[in-house]
Amino acid sequence: MNYESLSLVLKSLADPNRMKIVDMLSCGSLCACDLLEYFDFTQPTLSHHMKVLEKAGVVCVSKKGQWHHYSLREEFVVEFMESIQQLLVNNEDNCVCKVKEESK
Q1: Number of domains in the chain
Q2: Domain containing 91 — which CATH number?
Q3: What is the pLDDT of residues 38-97, one digit of tens each?
Q4: Could you tell me if 69 and 76 are in contact, meaning their C-beta atoms sit under 8 angstroms apart?
Q5: Disulfide engineering: 53 pairs with which of 14, 59, 86, 101, CB 3.0-4.6 Å?
C-alpha cells in the first residue's frame, strides 16, 4: 500500500465541501456550473477545491467549450476501495506486521 498517496487522498477528502463534491460526482460527470448550484461559495473557491481533488488523483477534468467538466477517476475509485479494505480488514496474509517479520 502506498501510504503517502493514500494520505494525500484522505487529506483532500477531509474537507466537507470536497467530500460532498466527490459524492455528487459518484453519480456521473458534472460541469462546474452545475456543482456551484449546490454550494454557497464562488467559482474561484470551487476551482480551488477541484485543484486539490485533481492533485490528489481523485478527479479528472475535461474542458468542453468554456466549461470544465469533472468526473471521478475510475482508477481512484478502485485503488481507494482496495486501500481502505487493506487498511481496515483483518487479513493475516497481507498484514503489515507479518510482512515485516518475513523480511528479517
Answers
A1: 1
A2: 1.10.10.10
A3: 999 999 999 999 999 999 999 999 998 888 999 999 999 999 999 998 888 876 666 667
A4: no
A5: 59
